[in-house]
Each structure stands twice: as C-alpha cells, then as structure tokens.
Amino acid sequence: MNHRLNLRKLAAAAVLVLSGTMLAASPAHAANIATNPGFENDLAGWTCSPSAGATAVSSPVHGGSKALQATPAGSDTARCQQTVSVKPSSSYSLSAWVRGGYVFLGVLGTGTTDQSTWTSSPSAYSQLSRTFTTGASTTSVTIYVNSWYGQGAYQADDFVLDGEAGQGQPPAAPTGLTSTSTRTSAVLNWTASAGATGYNVYRDGAKVATATGTAYTETPPQGNYTYQVSAVNAAGESPRSNQVSVVIGNDTPPPPATPTGLTATAGGANVALSWNPSSNATGYNVYRDGAKVGSPATTAYTDTPGAGTHTYQVSAVNPTGESARSAQVSATVGGDQPGTLPKRVLVGYLHASFANGSGYIRMADVPNEWNVINLAFGEPTSVTSGDIRFQQCPVAECPGVEPEADFIAGIRAKQALGKKVLISIGGQNGQVQLTTAAARDKFVQSVSAIIDRYGLDGLDIDFEGHSLYLNQGDTNLAAPTTPVIVNLISALKTLKARYGAKFVLTMAPETFFVQLGYQFYGPGANGSADQRAGSYLPVIHAMRNDLTLLHVQDYNSGPITGLDNQYHTMGTHDFHVAMTDMLLAGFPIAGNPNNVFPALRPDQVAIGLPAAAYAGNGFTTVAEVQKAFDCLAKGTNCGPYKPRGVYPNLRGLMTWSINWDKYNSFEFSRSHRAYLNGLG
How far apart are CA 65 and CA 53, in angstroms? Predict the structure, then answer.
C-alpha cells in the first residue's frame, strides 16, 4: 500500500496530464513569518524526523550561505516542519526553493483545506508555492517539506510564509480528568496538554491551586465537591476540562457518569458493542430492547441476540449505584449470507509483517469498528516467481508481536464476530508479475497455502509499481492479451472456484491504474505513454461478478481527469466524489466509445483514504470525507462536481491503516463507524 510510495508513477502521471510549464514572477512579500527560513541558523525553529539526518549544508544552496539537506531512510520520508502562529480568516502564501528527486511542500492545520504540492528537480533548485486561507478559529499552522521513500538526499532553502503574524495561543483543555478519594483527601489525575507550562485546579468553580504536573492532591473539609482543571502558558488559559465529583468524609464514591460514545456493529449472528469509559465506574450494564442482558467489567460487550433489529443502551455502576442509561443505538442481525458483508463496511490494513513507526497491534486488539481486516503483506520471493510468502513481523522489529498460535486465535475471534480477515498481496515492495503459466500456478498454490494455514476469508490484491502493465496493441478491455493480465485473471478465477461463495475478493489499486484509463490506456497508439496506465481495468472487469469490494486508493495520486473533463486534486471532497463516480457510472477507455468500462454495483465500491496526515499524501478531514459520502449516497452536500447519479448502496470506506488510525487516536474508525451506522 502507500507506506512506501513508488514515485515513478507520479512522475509518469505528471508527464501525461501536463501540457506545459507555467512560470510566475516572484511576488513582493508583505512579511515572511517563517522562522529561520534560509537555515542560516542551522535547524533552529525546525523539527525534523529522527532518521532524516537533517543538517544545514553550505552547498548546494539557493540563497545565503546555507540550505537544509535531509535524506529519507526506510519508512522515514525525511520530513522537516515548523509551527507558525497565524491570524484566523486570513490569506497566506507559502513557497520554498527545493532540489531533489521528489520533494513535497505543504501546510497542515489551516482550518480550511490543507495544501501540498511537489516537484522532481534533481539537478537544480525549483520553486514550489501554494496559497491558503485560515479558518475562523485557526491560530497556528504547520509548514513542512519532505521527500519520499527510496529517494536520495534533497535540499530546501528560502522558505517564505507571507502574511500577517499571529499571536501565541493557549494550550488545549486537559482531557481524561479522573478522581479518587479517601476519608480525608481528593486525588486528581489528567492527561497532559500540548504546549502547557502549568495547570489551574478548580473546586466547585473556584480556582484553588496551580500544578506543574498532571496530578494534584488536597485535603478539603468533609463534603461533596466537583473538580475541573485548565492548562496555561504564556499566551493564556485553556477551557476547563471535564468535571468529576469527589466525596470527602466517607469512602463511598459518587455515582458514575453516564457512558458516552456507544456504537453497535453487527456481524454474522453477533453484535459488537463498545463505548467510552465512565468516571468512577467499576462495571457496566448492557440493555437490549430495554432488558438487561449483560454486566461486563470493561467497555466492550458481544451479544448474540437472534435475527432482527435490536436497540442497545449501557449504564455504568459502582457500589454507590447505577448511572442513567446511555444514548440508544440499533443493529440488525440475520440479513447477511455466509461470505457476505454488512451493508456499510470499514476496511483497514493491519501491519502484520512489518513495522513502520505507527506501532504494532496484536490481532486480538484490533478494534471492533473494522469489518474487513487486510493482513499487510504477502510478498513474492522474486518479482516473477509467483511464490507468495507471509510471515508475522519479526520480534526484533515488533517487540510486541504475539506467538503464531495467539495470532491465529485472534483471527478466529474476529471471525466469530462476523469480521473478514484477508491476506493482502503486494504493497509497494511486493511487486508481482505473473509472466508465465508456471508463475500463475505457483501463485495459486502459495496463496492457497497462506489462506489455509491461517484460516483466512479471502484475498486482497494490492498490486503496485510495475506488477501490471499492457503491451502495445492490447486495447480490448474484454479480451486482454498481455501475459501478466491474463495470468492474474486466471489465477483469481481458480482461487474463487476453489473456495466458493464464501471467498472474499477485494482490490486496492491506485488511481493511476484505474481512473487514469479515462484518458490513457497502456502505451497508446504510438507507444509513448506509460504502459501501466489503466492496466487494472481488464482485471476488475473480468472479475466483476466475483469481486466483493473495489477500494481505489484516493491518495498518493497526481491530478486525475473526471467525467466532467476537469482535473481533480487529491485531499478534497470533490476528488473523492469524482473518482468514485467514475466507478459507479462507467466511462469510455481513452475516450473510445466502443471500449467502455461498465459501471460497478455501488455495493462493490468503497472509498480508499489515509487514516491520518502522516499515513499518506491526500489526507482528507473527517468532515470532508463524510460530505463526499453524503453527496454520493444521498445527493446532498455536493460541491462543484455533480455525480452522474445517487448511489444509496455505496458500501463504505477503506483506510491505510488500522495502525495509523490507532496512532491518530482512532479518529478515522470511531468517527466514520458512527457515521456509517447512522446511514442505515
């Protein structure tokens, strides 16, 4: 997947879609508010990723006596960044001079639409620039520069962030405030706030103390009290935290708070419930259709209610009593046939065979929000062998990796909840070219061995790089002739026949291999185009009756022309609408009305996204993703691009990855699971 981007295809896309180069005169700058923009003070004001080897060099430079130099290493893209104070609702211009194989410039945290751009200029400095407007409450942004995986050293110099300087900003409110009490003391603990230099403690609304750490103990008179904390720094004070209650004078705790964040996910015969912890709770009660059905000690519960639609609530308990019940959610059980998926799905990739800085997750600990778990990755012994191997992440790379028996037990537990666990073949490093019948047969044999060893539900094809391509003259979608295409189709049909109706087949191509086919298909009539353009299309078309899900990666993409014949750029609401509409409406390949890629069923299509800004280029905020889904599934919240139809059965969302989602505090899975559940 996109954890190691092959940028040659980005360059090919740029050659295909750009007809010329635009040059602009350098503007006069009102104020450059970037710190140390020319690296004359070495790296002062900048923070660089730990493996980048970042340094200020004296040659080559663009201006002055120094420039930044950094080198990608492994999964580290050598990012350097700084956070700059800005004013809300204001316009800014960002530019920098860069030199290297592939260099990206961007800005995060704008409160509107974050911006990024890139160039390939290995032998001379080239200027990159972007403009943006801050949101109504935005007081700081992060500007950054980085290269990409597998590239050599790059240089950057003479940054300009042109616009009005902002003021420092107070820290965010502390979270996770908890309290315990004895007969004489109240003990508070909370989670640190970024940028805080201290904290204020409030009892019953009045400030009673300051603290430098994230804990506070006091001995007030006997009575019932409420507490909150705030964070402070030189710029001011944050809003106050959540409120907790303490009783001093006896050992009886206050009643627990009402649970929040209840979600219900149906799978097979089961319903998986999860919710947020409640302060002072020692356990919980689960209610189905108004009747108590369980009393778990943790914030998760699996119910087997029988077929039908059921409502759920939870309450929190402790020795003092029971809280009010939570908000009600519903789940429907009994509508899925074996081997099928719920109406709305979340698909996530689990880093099962490698580590890349986002942290290892044991199979048993994968959250319940995910319906399909793709094990990343099975990779070939060589590009053309067809011999696919999968092994768990080595202990030296992933110290928390579980024994194989526990890994398999975790898979069984997820399957018992109705989850599907697949082996994903490929990724950026796993290029697979089935050039011969022998390689095709070895692919079938080795993939079957992995599926059988771990008891998996099916297969995900994530072929990237040069795995798929079209030979000169191979232009008929329905009758491809290129061996790597023909042999892959044959292998997939054999696997489907072997495992039958329960076999789950998904694909995760990049836009270069699918939607770019609207303009370019293989090398073209004169052989001058990239022979990989649109090369996934004949595989998708041949397998459309057996395909469970297609989730194109709407990220790490160059600009792509939509059905409106306009270019669309990743990271925006319109990009996802335009790219998905092409799959659901169909399109003529390379503009040929006699060679059309037919529309897929909406239930076969999910939108592919990065789980966080550091998981891949083209990150889209939760709100923008859900606007795009609204536009496609409900015909509301559409932007400039208007889809050819409304697709209420659009299946769901895919992300790279489950690990990056956890690293980003589960924002993707929890936000989008609740949204998809609300669609019905």
Answer: 19
b/e sequence 70-108, b meaning 16+ C-beta within 10 Å: bbbeeebbbbbbbbbebbeeeebbbbbbbbbbbbbbbbb
* 656 pLDDT tier (thresholds 50, 70, 90): very high
CB 59 within 8 A of CB 69: no
Which tokens go with 302? 């699996």
Amino acid at 412: R
DSSP state of 549: E
CA angle 358, 359, 360 (to 5 degrees): 135
Q: Which two tokens stand for residue 190?
A: 């909370």
Taking the C-alpha atoms of residue 192 and residue 215, their distance in angstroms, rounded to an integer, is 10
pLDDT in tens, 371-394: 999 999 999 999 999 999 999 999
Q: How far apart are alpha carbons 383 and 467 in whole angstroms?
A: 8
CA distance 560 to 578: 9
CA-CA distance, 362 to 410, in Å (whole number)? Answer: 8
Three-class secondary structure assignment of 138-180:
CCEEEEEEECCCCCCCEEEEEEEEECCECCCCCCCCCEEEEEE
- 218 belongs to the catalytic site: no
pLDDT of 486 > 90? The answer is: yes
**Residue reference for tokens 């089935």:** 434
- DSSP states of 553-598 as a string? B-SS---EE-TTS-EE-TTSHHHHHHHHHHHHH-EEETTEEEEEEP
Q: What is the pLDDT of residue 9?
A: 37
- For residue 210, give the 3-state DSSP assignment: strand
CA distance 204 to 652: 46
Are the CB atoms for 200 and 230 separated by under 8 Å? yes
E-strand stretches of 186-237: 186-191, 198-203, 206-211, 215-218, 223-233, 236-237
Place of tokens 């040929």: 592
The conformation of residue 450, written as its DSSP 8-state character, comes to H
CA atoms of 261 and 676, how far apart (whole Å):
14
**HSE-CB of 180 using CA atoms within 13 angstroms:** 5
Q: Which of 62, 228, 204, 89 is nearest to 145 (CA)?
A: 62
The CA distances from residue 518 to 41, 128, 377, 537, 566, in Å, are 49, 29, 30, 10, 12
Query: Residue 501 in 3-state DSSP?
Result: helix
The structure's pTM equals 0.57
Catalytic residue among 464, 510, 624, 667: 464
**Euclidean distance between CA atoms 388 and 385, whole angstroms:** 8
Helix 437-454 / helix 483-499 crossing angle, nearest 10 deg: 30
